[in-house]
Amino acid sequence: MERLLYWRGLELQMLVDKVLYISAYGMLVLSDWHLGKLGHFRQEGIFVPPMQLQGELARLSGLLERLPVRQVVFLGDLFHSAWNREWDDLMEYLQGVKGVDFILTIGNHDVLPDAFLRDSPLIVVDSLSLEEGVVLSHEPVHVSPEILNIVGHVHPGTEIYAKGRQRFRLPCYHLQGNVLTLPAFGQWTGLHICRKTVHNRLFAIMGDEIVEVL
Hints:
One of its GO terms (molecular function) is hydrolase activity. The protein has 214 residues and is of the alpha/beta class. It has a single domain (2-213), classed as Purple Acid Phosphatase, chain A, domain 2, CATH 3.60.21. It is 17% helix and 37% strand. It has four helices and 16 strands. The radius of gyration is 17 Å and the shape is globular.
């Protein structure tokens, strides 16, 4: 399932897969994958479940098979902190995908040495602009109100209350003013809970559908 937003006639598809698809550009946008995070924890002596890199890559492969994609934009925090073997596995995977450009807008966790990025299949930028008045970046940048800024960074989520005092914490898309924040694509990122106000819109991912929180 998907939920549509429009900006100056440009269709933005919010998918339950925690990615944004912009069909006019064949562009898949995802944020805060934090690959290598479990490996980083293991190096620090923290017990975590076995790493699931192949499962993570299979999620992206499924999207590339399902949608006509020419560009994949990683909105920062693609990899978590220092190098580990998962970086090499990721680069090998990206090199094997033909006909798709991979673009990284640098995030605060993208701290690998420049040489790693230079030798990678990634196109590395601070931000990316579309002609419809859209800027993609890891964190919000100072743009005019006429520009839509698509960002990541905070891993937005919301709480849904159900019968029997049940409470569910769910990832969500968060739109406030001219800033659209995407949910974290990574599985081990946690949530920053956003509250519904008169100034924002929240779109919660509930299984196979996206529901606006009213």
